[in-house]
Amino acid sequence: MTEPKESKNIFDEAPAFDYDEQAPLIDAEEFFKVINSRRSVRVYKDDPVPGAIMTRSLQAALLAPNSSNLQCWEFYWVKTPEKKAQLVKACLGQPAASTAPELVVAVARTKTWNWARKEMKKIFDETEKSGTKVPASARAYYEKLVPFVYCQGPLGAWGLIKKCLVWSMGWFKVIPREPTSKAQLKIWAVKTTALACENFMLAMRAQGYDTCPMEGYDSARIRRILKLPCDAVPVMVISAGKRAKGGIYGPRIRFPSENFIKEV
Ligand SMILES: Cc1cc2nc3c(=O)[nH]c(=O)nc-3n(C[C@H](O)[C@H](O)[C@H](O)COP(=O)(O)O)c2cc1C
Fold first, then answer.
1. Alpha carbon separation from 224 to 43, 110, 227, 229, 230 (Å, rounded)
2. What are the pocket residues of ligand 1 if the criterion is a CB atom closer than 6 Å to any ligand atom?
3. Which of 249, 222, 237 has the alpha carbon at shortest distance from 100?
4. Which atom of ligand 1 is nearest to the CA of 42?
5. CB–CB of 67/192 below 8 Å?
6. Quick one: DSSP state of residue 248?
7. CA Rg value for the chain
8. Number of CB atoms found within 10 A of residue 88's CB
9. pTM of this structure
10. Which residue, by CA, sits nearest to atom 23 of ligand 1?
11. Ligand 1 mean position to 216 CA, how many Å?
12. pLDDT per residue over 82-125, tens digit each?
């Protein structure tokens, strides 16, 4: 077995792993059928969504790429009828929520990185116990770099110090500039969580069900309903079910792609 090359920093060079993962053959047409047929559905049939479909789609959400693999997301699958009724109200009673058999609230967490890096250490320890060496650079990433980057300190004081450091060092070297504030940390966590939301919606579509992402809601009420901790950011509520006739409000509209795709 190849020993991973030791480098101080995983950005310096790729550690050599004796690991290979073959890419399976994909039916591209089926994949694009899933993308093209995902529409925001505002009115659902009463048909229930099988629990296994929801679970599989939620598990697919957790496979989304995410920053530093710190998995700073949570998905609240709201099942209790009282909570569901409260959530529909918090979603302004919009039909995309009120007619939906299932509702999921996607939440980004800005403070769970510290827990996650400790979990990562446990995984590294287990990996080494089973005889596979973990590169020192990978350990250093989670032990030193992650707290340095993601911790913002009391009242964001450490973030402010980092902002000054980054600004001055940035004149002389290429350096990641964010996150150096709680607001930037929210952007960090929301980016990752939004990717997982798309995985969930596409997984539902691939299994014959529909969804609607919603941010038309009262976030303070959602926090109260779910008893969210203060570092949690509701990202979107996603309703799910089978599309009813008239549940899609019209053909899909997109502006010409030249406005958005820039070849530089
Ligand atoms: C973050 C986000 C928030 C949205 N909020 C709502 C919403 O509150 N209510 C709603 O009916 N649709 C909502 N939508 C759906 C969009 O209106 C919809 O995606 C857009 O019109 C494009 O249509 P399509 O999804 O069918 O392609 C939201 C979509 C996103 C990504």
1. 26, 18, 5, 9, 11
2. 39-40, 42, 94, 96, 212-216, 236, 252
3. 237
4. 11
5. yes
6. S
7. 22
8. 22
9. 0.94
10. 40
11. 9
12. 999 999 999 999 999 999 999 999 999 999 999 999 999 999 99
